[in-house]
Amino acid sequence: MSRILLLGGTGFVGRAVCGKLVEAAGGAGQTLIVPTRHPARAKHLQPLPSLQLVRADVHDEAQLHRLVQGADAVVNLVAILHGSDAAFRHVHVELPRKLAAACLAANVRRVVHVSALGVGTAATAGAAGAEPSRYLRSKAAGEAVLRAAGLDLTILRPSVIFGEHDRFLNLFATLQAVFPVVPLGGADARFQPVWVQDVASAIVRCLADAGTIGQTFECAGPSVYTLRQIVEGAGRWSGHPRPVFGLPDALARAQAQLMEWLPGGPLMSRDNIDSMRVPNVASGSLPGLAALGIVPTSLEDVAPGYLAADQGIARLNRWRAERR
User: φ and ψ at 157, to 5 degrees?
Assistant: First the structure.
């Protein structure tokens, strides 16, 4: 494929996908188009050959139609973890709807869409007795919109994604550098963390293999952990382990509600608590990374390297402490 449009390419996962796509092309004439509303914030991508940063708002239908023109394939990574019901629908449902319309109008058939592990469960469908998560429900609706469009679609459903620039393990490591204890909502929630480079490799392989069209792949790491185990690991690997104690549901929701009011965006929301009621682990009923020829990398093989003192973003902890 000579021209690929990557939506959400400037973020944490996008950074890895850009690198993998450029590496896979090997200078073979591929052009990677990465739209962004703030090109100055994407300077980390500028050195990559054959990558073009384009100032654009992908939520604007006219601009999206122009971006899709001439593309051989589109990859959609755009997502949010926090927000109102309207915000979730705007990003996870309306953008896929606009993207499908733009692709059909431009006769661009190939789309790879990154969704989320847990989509399609009873909780997301709002079954009797289940308390649905707006995040997962909107992700499910976005998948449905793209499937209904009749595109050459591949869907990836990753578990929580970790890597050097993540806002997951790094957040818990930073919190333990500051606070003496960690009160944790959803401590027993189960995850199967997947390395960002493995997710990026999966996207590249799906683009290269037409046999993946019409399939949904679960992207999960080799091991399942509770959230408590993940948080304890982040503290241990970053050199400042703290006691972690789980909160009962009522206190967890109260804590999340307080965090929703924090400036700069919440660390946790009540909708996150709802999401964690659905085990974030591979179902086994869908193909996974192994079907794409990828051996998933373990958390222990990667996280200690970027969480350790003076590594990754942890190298900034000393200045954070000095500035309180």
Answer: -120, 95
In whole angstroms, what is the distance from residue 98 CA to residue 77 CA? Answer: 14
Specify whether the CB–CB gap between 161 and 303 falls below 8 A. no
Burial category of 271 from C-beta neighbours within 10 Å (exposed 0-12, middle 13-18, buried 19 and up) = buried
Give pLDDT tens digits for 9-49: 999 999 999 999 999 887 667 899 999 999 888 988 988 98
Q: Please give the torsion angle defined by the CA atoms of residues 5, 7, 13 and 14, in that order, rounded to the nearest 10 degrees.
A: 50
Residue 258 one-letter amino acid: L
Short-list 245, 274, 240, 235, CA closest to 184 = 245
Return the exposure string of 125-161: e unless at least 16 CB atoms fall within 10 Å of the residue's CB, then b. eeeeeeebbbbbbbbbbbbebbbebebebbbbbbbbb
Residue range 105-153, pLDDT digits in tens: 999 999 999 999 999 764 444 443 343 699 999 999 999 999 999 999 9
Instruction: Please choose, from the candidates 59, 52, 51, the residue with its C-alpha nearest in 3D space to the C-alpha of residue 24.
Output: 51
* Cα–Cα distance measured from residue 33 to residue 10, given in angstroms and rounded to the nearest whole number: 11
**Rounded to an integer, what distance in angstroms lies between the CA atom of residue 267 and that of residue 168?**
10
Domains of the chain in sequence order: 3-162+194-219 (3.40.50.720)
Total-model pTM: 0.91
Number of other residues whose CB lies within 10 A of the CB of residue 44: 11
